[in-house]
Fold these 2 entries.
Entry 1:
Amino acid sequence: MSNSSVLITPDNQQTVLQLDKINKVFNEGTPLANHVLHDVSLQVSRGELVALVGTSGSGKSTLLNVMGLLDLYSSGELRIQGHLTQGLSEQQRTQLRSESIGFVFQFHHLINAFSTIDNVLMPLMLRYGKPNQEQTEYAQYLLNEVGLANYAHIATNRLSGGQQQRVAIARALVSRPALILADEPTGNLDTQTADEVFDLFERFNVEHQCAIVIVTHDPRLSARCPRTIRLTDGRIVYDGASANLPNAFTKTV
Amino acid sequence: MSFFNAISRLRNSLWIEWRIAIRFLAESPLQTLLISVAISVGAAVIVFITALIMGLQINLINKTLGTQAHIRIEATQQHNNFSEFPEGKYVWTFENPRAQRLQTINNWQEVRDTLDQYSAFNTVSPLISGPAFATKGSARSSVALMGIDPKRYTGIINLEEYLTEGQFSIEASDILIGYQLAKDLGLRSGDKLRIDAGDNHQAVMNVAGIFELGVRELDSRYVYTSLKQAQTLLNLPGGITILEIKISDVFSAEYWAQRIQKLTGLYVQSWMESNGQLLNALNSQSMTTQIIRVFVAMSVIFGIASVLAVSVVQRTREIGILRAMGSSQQQILRVFLLQGGLLGLTGSLLGVLMGYTLIQIFNAIDTKLFVIELETSMMLSAIFIATLAGVLAAMVPARRAAKYDPAVAIRYV
């Protein structure tokens, strides 16, 4: 793939993510059809920090996968940085994903065969091959930022859960994406570590002005996000300031 | 070497794929080691068996063709001529086949000179051969009298090499006889021997040397003399009965035999025709080897494929992560193809080394039988083919890996 993007124009897109009446049906057209997302419409702008909440099975993860182009949607319109994703080839989807989106998963999902810094550099290496000095320095800078400066050349399976999650965050940031999608990033961390990891999200959100969508079960964390989107049975039932989230919802979480 | 240059160029253009492939292989060392050993055993068997059979065949051919020409040209056989009979009538004839008396090849000098111009022929040697009796005292033995042109005949059988006694000379009344005949008639070099070719053509000859060709039939019957002597004795002045040819590529003998037949109209026979049994044996040997090689190669390919299929399942989650990190389907495909190729490469390198060692051991144990040689080109082609087979074997698992749905793969535990 070439270094210059064919998909992203370098203008200041304020709307990073735009969903319009997105539907997702698994096993479409078969008796096992399962309608997971119903007419989901939302917008995420540059620099926003959004919590995506809902009970298990409400479709949060599916929605996140659709936003991240990991999964196809059945109908509707999805734009990433203004680009319509309808009808893109697998290769174009991959390129758009690698240029615009960073992922953080619940089980940190590092590749144990590689060292910490190589894990951070992975999105760049997959795109450009052997990393140059500037890329390596940036990865090292990100490791400093997440407090793992001295762990660069250590195998990732020797790190603790919290440390691994911080590596995953550094990795999500290395390609300077406009959007970070995090699926239960603090799901298997203790409260204190979870807070530390969330601090990082907040900091990078402000410093790098990237939009962040976090799927979480933890009401304390969602309360720290300025905006909350709530899904029930694949429908958005609340989208607004976290502070105004009706009590009825917070209780059931 | 350009082979390794190509590898290093491949490494640079597929930097990250190469790196991931190597790390994946290194991360499960036991699995990698086991399949490499399995591949190397297969490659060693193929290399060893190929070299063994090749050595055996070369040995057999050399032994058989060492004492005979590759192509023999004789005068056309004599046959009865019938007068033409009127059309529409049936003629019932009773035919006695003609006796084949010795007859010369017409214009043999011209034929010889024409054939000399072909670069495919190493030697074209005239020969006059006919039956005679050899007598010493009251002992008598039937022999084949062979009149040769000594310079040219060296290219067919280098008699000097086979001499066990005396010296190579067929000038004047000198003859060379086989050691079996010498034994039968109690002769040593320097002794006299009477040759009787019938029709009162006889002469007392001088045994100049005794040879041993290692073929009993030849050692008990061949008596070599000069062309002139033989022509006189066999009453065929100036004539020869056979033109013998040696060619560089022994397996093209049949092709050339047919060409010469068309060119000269003479009776031409290649060694392949006169040694049908040998050729048959060689062919079935080659076929057997081929079958063994195919089956061994198949088991190696399936071995690589199954190990990679397991590896793809083991790596499902990592494949999902790589896809989410922006790797393309083609990159994933190449990672697994490379793993297959690398397994084939290392396995076959080890295997060729093992095959080489086996051959050295074989040669050291029994040098009397025959020596196997391992050609560099064969080793290189074994490595090349094994690497290619590795890539091919990886095709199915690699395609599966590339087709994984990243959203599903990433949740795989």
Note: The mean pLDDT of chain B is 86.
Entry 2:
Amino acid sequence: MRGAMEKRFHSLFLMFSIIGPGLITVNAGNDAGGIATYASVGASYGYRMLWGLLLITFSLAVIQEMNARMAVVTGKGLSDLIREKFGVKMTFFAMSVLFIANFGVVLGDFAGIAASMELFGISKYISVPVVAVTIWLVLTKGSYSKVEKIFLLFTFVFFGYIISAFMAKPSWPEVFKSMATPSLELSTGFLLTFIGMIGTTITPYMQFYLQSSIVDKKLSIKDYKYEKVDVYLGAFWGNAVSFFIIVCTAATLYKAGIAITSAQQAAVSLKPIAGQYAFLLFGLGLFGASVLAAAIIPLSTSYAICEAFGWERGVDHEYKEAPAFFGIYTIIIFLGSALILIPGISLMKIILATQQLAGILSPVILIFMIKLVNDKRILGEYVNTRTQNIVSWTTVIFIVTLSIILFISPLFG
Amino acid sequence: MQKSKSFFFSKILYKNIYNVSGAIIGKLNDLILDFDSEKPVIKAIEVKIGRELSYISSNSLEIGKDKREKYRVVLDSNNIKVESTDENDIFLARDLLDKQIVDINGKKAERVNDVRLGKISGRWNLIAVDIGFRGLLRRLGVEYPAIRISELFKLEFRNTLIVWDNVQPLTTSVENLKLSTSMGKLKTLHAADIADIIEDLDKKSREALFQSLDDETAAEVLEEVETEVQKSLLETLSDEKASDLLEIMPSDEAADILEEIDDTRAERLLTQMEAESSEEIRELMEYEEKTVGSLMSKDFISFLPDKHVNDVVDYFRENKSKDELAYYIYVVNNKGQLLGTLAPLDLVASEAGMKLYDIMTPVPKSLEDEDNIDKAMEVMQKYHLVAVPVVNEDRELIGVISLNDLVHEYVRLRRVAA
């Protein structure tokens, strides 16, 4: 009936229609917290953490593939699976951890909104309330999916870092050398920054968000090979951007001895490409990424918690039908934005600290995931392979060890 | 300590089991249910002794309750019988607690927060499942403190129980399909309600539930669910079953589905069908989107003008047809060209011996297959019609477009746009 050529186009089309969740998730992960953390990694420690970024890129790819596999095989979200395997008490624990981590990240994103608008001379007392109310209205009216793409466009600004990184003429041999030579410094500052880098890369919310978006696509196991491409591509592409942010800030700020304490300083690293427009470019990108995350994360937190406890959810419900669903994201948005309005707090510190919190909490969710993905009753023949288990357990142990060292090192300092 | 006649499962789960003299035997790890009787009965207890699991008959199980709502699980150890288990057994905590079920009354998928067990004529039965907030609090071990706090705010937490008669369990794991092999309870629901429930379920439960439906219901459900779910359900069906269902469906709906799926599969399904159905569907698939032809149904009832009223009435008595088909009866000449329409009421109101030609409405409003659906809407609105005949350029009657078809399309477009 139809030619082989057309069939090939069909499968190419199919691939593009499946690819998406992975790329969007990681891209949204490069939010205010991501940008600020990577920038401060480069600015404060030069190329010295690049080896860590390289390793967690593999971890991220393996972890997100686990989410994709669980989504396609079971057709259930991560909270659903946690609830069904671990019961109410453990689910309550997992959801509390998720809520705290996500609340932190949203706080960081509102700080990002405030910081980016301050670059344009707009006070946080105006920008934050206006954006919070707008986000809340857009989510509640259910028109979020239309707006999502606009803000996703904003984040393309950060691809400017890739060009900027080349124009800053970093010493590439040094870059590659540090990627291959692990070095760790047992100072609180170094450990915190390192954990922040992990936290912003393997954020707990991303696992829930990614798995749900893949479930929503209702893929069959036949299409799983395309979804795998999507998550791997997402992980590597997302972290490639992170890599260039670090290289770029290392080659500019670290060289000049500037540690990042404000958005202005972070913007300086875009000067090689944008010159005097660096602030404009950085401000727009930071704003877009922060708004995107400040909308996605409260919503996905609300979905995850309601899914776990079997409460009505979805923006197509009336408030009365789903009070918990509307309540949770409303609290996150308004409490998160209100805290940013406290006079005199350091926006940059909040952004970085919330990523570190997410990093410390991330192993909790990962352990739940690894337990699930190895359960034969749930995944049958699609349980983790040995290699996948080694990578994911190593990641967990590594983060836990770093956190423990972080907490006990002051005792010996 | 008094004997309890009924209690919540969470009150005894993971609690110590005592023998009659008060020594601890082990921990209650799970209960094994027998689903063969009308209400599920507890068959055996999974007891954790040290790190070992053993299975003990529940015959001598007694549940005691003290004044402070503390429960005590007692087994008569003189009477312990060890049971064997196999992988088909259904475990209460593992397979039902925290899982999704369908509430037949509420027509919705719900999550099981707790389970109510009760002693009926000497045996422990599963009486009801708890889907409410209070069940969650109980599982968290804060039921009474939370109630005391809520009383301060004049709030009341009630248990939300669904009696077992209204519970349809769903499959929960790769191997364990036994739970959902009998979907008997769903039979009382309308296909559109089943479709709503199916959309809410996860993939496994959805497939198991769908497979258990008879062909007629399955076809109706398939027609009602959203496109993505249609696709994923079709993928799990064998070619034979899929083409059977598509043949039962109205040809326009079948054509819509086939346009969405992979071309080679669609072609395979079409060749499996009887020539008549597949030809109808193929013709419908040729139409451009948003034309009347793409939405119209090929199923309609037509007669020659010299038929008598009683012949037509007899026809309806002998061939039970769907409501939608009988909005209007069409009168065509021997070339198949549309001459007139009749409403079923016209038949009732006319004498048995009259010819259709005498009672039909001649030169009815009609549409052409290449017309835009906006025109169909205009015609229906203007002339207050629930269905309009569709003719080709030679005025041959080739299909019918109904108000229902337009509503479906409208809802679909809105869903795509959202």
Note: The two ends of chain B are 60 Å apart (CA to CA).
